[in-house]
Design goal:
By secondary structure, the protein is an alpha+beta fold. It is built from 18 helices and 34 strands. It has a 15-stranded antiparallel β-sheet that branches. A six-stranded mixed β-sheet has the order 1-8-7-6-2-5. Strand 6 and strand 7 form a beta hairpin. Helix 16 runs antiparallel to helix 17. The N and C termini lie far apart (88 Å).
Length: 775
């Protein structure tokens, strides 16, 4: 009986190895036994002999490692590893040893090394480890044989086999960096390396979600396409110089490719649709497709109606438009979802088109899909070909530019900070914000980055959008921190309590209350963008210049006010250095523009204000003991936003005061090539608990500061290291965590524009072409 109980423990331990063993799938990949856990065997003096466990053998198909397993302590129960990468046999052996050692029934429990003494030895074989699909999800089946031998007599005291079947529990979340993005400058979708589309707001960037499995796999909805291949490897890439995403599945029995894109062209109005095309390159491959939209952030029910090779999803109410899935293979309904199971041979393909419902049930012309693909490829290749950057990091710079272009509204000319919301800055943390809006700061910096590459049309389109804002007074001043992509001012912040959040990070927020904050730095960024637009594009109109003067008249009276600053803190307003710096930029750029364009202006008043701000910064934001500029007046706190001081040409990058500031920043905020914004947990300046990762844009600013100070070798080394933190497609989220994982909304414009700025400057000076002068 005791030996039987010991074997039950073995079967329980072995079953836990199933967590993710057969590869990451879209259905839940955490597993628990469907049988009650075995109790601890009672202590028994008769079994207090030494016990060794030999490594369990496994068939050839289990040796296709290395495999990555994920589990949680709660689900494993007795085995508290959270994440590991090892051979299944080693894990099984170690798990059994740990469990039996804790039982106290044996004097010694060890893993057999071929030499150690043992009274008993357990051996066995993993006969089967297989993933099986069924209508409710995915399950794993295991067959294990084991026996216990008395070494002293050579007799087998017990032998048996067991089959264990596991069922799904909660799903693991795909790492943020495992996604690529597709878009058409109106909407953006995130596609994982597993072929699942896990995030889509439709029909616009800031519309309610249709797919949001990124934030909740049960309620969010997704669009899965899964090749049924054993031990498959996955490769994901963009077709060169485009935003067309290719996911390639490779296995011994076949190779399949999934092409995802949103059509876009230069002629006429393009349909706002997603096209997913499957092609088999080699072998015959079975596929499973599941389209499960969850409208209005998962809060809206919908009906499904299937006709021949297309399905219509009709949400209840008016919050979301109905959607349709068109297909070249048969579809069938399963609950609120639409599924399809089909096979393709080498050379065959099938296409799915997901978009709004066409008039009178009109289906898309599938025969023109190839033409749309070619048009879309030509559009992106034609656009990026206009880039003037031909330097060392052309591939990364072009990818950043292509990503930034995706974030620009083709209709309005505004630019969103990121296409997602509530992706956490710390797993389990509360810094979860909605970035699907237009920040004046981010847009201005983005235009600066694109101008460096030679893209002027985007700047002019944004300035046209900005003109509509100059005449609209906001609650806290002439300009608002952020706007909707259409220019609307009201962006009320709400929490979606029904969504569990990415990796259970709550609250899940939509909207952004920071739109009501006072952030004085936006006036500097606004004026800098106007200056650049006039420098490289069309001259400003008379009416527009009058609005600029009105805004600067207000700023001249308010630049000394405390505000919430660039980081939009919620711990109370302060006099932040960065806000003061950008107020200086506002008057400095206005003066330069007026002089170059011979515009009328109150030069005397602007000069006095600009110089007063400069003196205030040197007098009140310099800490003598620290030998550094500080985050805010009256504190000893440091802030990485100070790195913009030389980039905005406020101070020389070789000024002794700046060099000592760099040393202070390096000592407290820098770890190799990663830079934190501020010391969040120590200072609690943002009024929120917990911490966050390093802020990648600040890391690129740091590198550019090093380059401008002449430390080229160090800057280049750190730049190359930082490029290594990009995901497999060259994309970055907002932050990087301690283990190199991506954190925060993804992909983030701020990071990519900082990459472009650092790359273009560093390449120029390394090539001996730094002939730039401040004009």
């Amino acid at each position: 009986m005791r030996i039987q109980q010991a074997f039950l423990i073995i079967s329980l331990a072995v079953s836990t190895v199933l967590v993710g063993c057969v590869g990451r799938v879209r259905y839940p990949t955490y597993y628990t036994l469907n049988v009650p856990p075995a109790p601890d065997p009672p202590a028994a003096a008769g079994l207090r002999a030494s016990l060794a466990i030999r490594e369990f053998r496994s068939p050839v198909y289990l040796r296709q490692g290395p495999l990555v397993y994920r589990a949680s302590a709660e689900q494993i129960g007795f085995y508290d590893y959270h994440r590991w990468a090892t051979d299944p046999r080693q894990f099984v052996t170690t798990a059994i040893a740990d469990r039996l050692r804790a039982s106290g029934n044996f004097a010694d429990v060890s893993v057999y090394d071929g030499r150690s003494h043992a009274d008993f030895i357990i051996t066995g074989c993993l006969e089967k480890l297989e993933e099986v699909d069924y209508e409710g999800g995915v399950k794993v089946e295991v067959a294990l044989s084991a026996q216990m031998t008395d070494i002293r007599t050579g007799t087998t005291v017990w032998a048996s086999s067991v089959s264990v079947e596991t069922g799904p529990t909660a799903m693991s979340f795909e790492p943020i960096e495992n996604y690529g993005v597709i878009g058409n400058m109106r909407s953006i979708a995130l596609v994982g390396v597993n072929g699942s589309m896990d995030f889509l707001c439709y029909p616009n960037f800031d519309s309610p979600t249709v797919f949001a499995a990124l934030l909740d796999d049960e309620r969010g909805g997704c669009f899965q396409i899964q090749p049924q291949l054993k031990q498959k490897r996955v490769r994901q890439l963009y077709l060169p110089d485009t935003n067309i995403l290719l996911t390639r599945f490779l296995a011994d029995e076949g190779v399949a490719e999934l092409t995802d894109y949103m059509p876009i062209g230069t002629d006429g109005e393009q349909p706002n649709e997603i096209i997913r095309t499957l092609t088999v390159i080699r072998g015959e491959v079975d596929f499973k497709m599941r389209c499960q939209p969850r409208f209005n952030y998962g809060m809206c029910e919908h009906a499904v109606n299937i006709e021949e090779r297309y399905a219509i999803f009709s949400p209840v109410g008016d919050a979301c438009p109905p959607m349709a899935l068109y297909s070249t293979v048969a579809l069938r309904q399963q609950s609120r979802d639409v599924i399809s199971e089909f096979s393709l041979r080498a050379g065959e393909r099938t296409t799915f088109v997901f978009d709004g419902v066409r008039p009178q049930g009109q289906q898309p012309e599938m025969e023109f899909v190839e033409q749309r693909f070619q048009e879309t490829a030509r559009f992106w290749k034609g656009w990026i070909a206009k880039s003037k950057y031909k330097g060392r990091w052309r591939e990364m710079v072009n990818r950043s530019a292509l990503m930034l272009k995706l974030l620009i509204s083709r209709e309005h000319g505004s630019l969103i900070a990121a296409p997602t919301f509530s992706v956490p800055e710390q797993i389990g943390g509360v810094r979860n914000w909605d970035y699907r809006f237009t920040w004046l700061r981010d847009a201005a910096f983005t235009l600066y980055a694109l101008i460096r590459l030679g893209f002027v049309d985007e700047t002019e389109a944004f300035i046209d959008w900005l003109k509509g804002r100059l005449g609209d007074d906001a609650e806290r001043g002439p300009l608002q921190v952020m706007y909707g992509i259409d220019g609307r001012q009201k962006l009320d912040e709400l929490t979606l309590d029904h969504l569990q959040g990415y990796e259970h990070s709550r609250p899940v927020r939509i909207g952004n209350a920071a739109y009501q904050q006072l952030q004085l730095d936006i006036y500097g960024e606004m004026m800098d963008s106007i200056y650049l637009a006039n420098k490289y594009g069309d001259a400003m109109s008379y009416a527009g210049w009058q609005e600029v003067q009105r805004i600067l008249q207000w700023l001249g009276k308010n630049w000394q006010r405390p505000d919430e600053g660039i980081w939009e803190v919620r711990g109370g307003a302060r006099e932040f250095l960065h806000s003061r710096l950008m107020c200086w930029v506002a008057f400095d750029r206005a003066l330069r523009l007026a002089q170059k364009r011979s515009l009328s202006a109150p030069f005397g008043a602007w000069l006095r204000t600009r110089d007063a701000i400069r003196e205030d910064i040197f007098k009140n934001f310099w800490h003598e003991d620290l030998q550094s500029f500080v985050q805010s007046k009256g504190t000893k706190d440091l802030d990485a936003s100070v790195l913009l001081m030389p980039l905005m040409r406020f101070i020389s990058p070789v000024d002794p005061m700046w060099r000592s500031t760099m040393k202070a920043i390096e000592a407290r905020l820098v770890e190799d090539t990663l830079v934190r914004r501020y010391e969040a947990e120590r200072t609690q300046v943002d009024g929120l608990p917990g911490g966050e990762g390093s802020f990648t844009a600040c890391s690129f600013w740091y590198i550019e500061c090093l380059a401008r100070a002449g430390e080229l070798e160090k800057a280049q080394l750190l730049f190359e290291k930082l490029l290594g933190y990009a995901n497999h497609l060259g994309l970055y989220s907002e932050q990087i965590g301690p283990s190199g994982q991506h954190l925060g909304n993804f992909p983030q414009a701020f990071t990519h524009l900082a990459l472009i700025s650092a790359a273009t400057y560093l390449d120029r000076v390394l090539s001996g072409k730094d002939d730039s002068v401040w004009r």
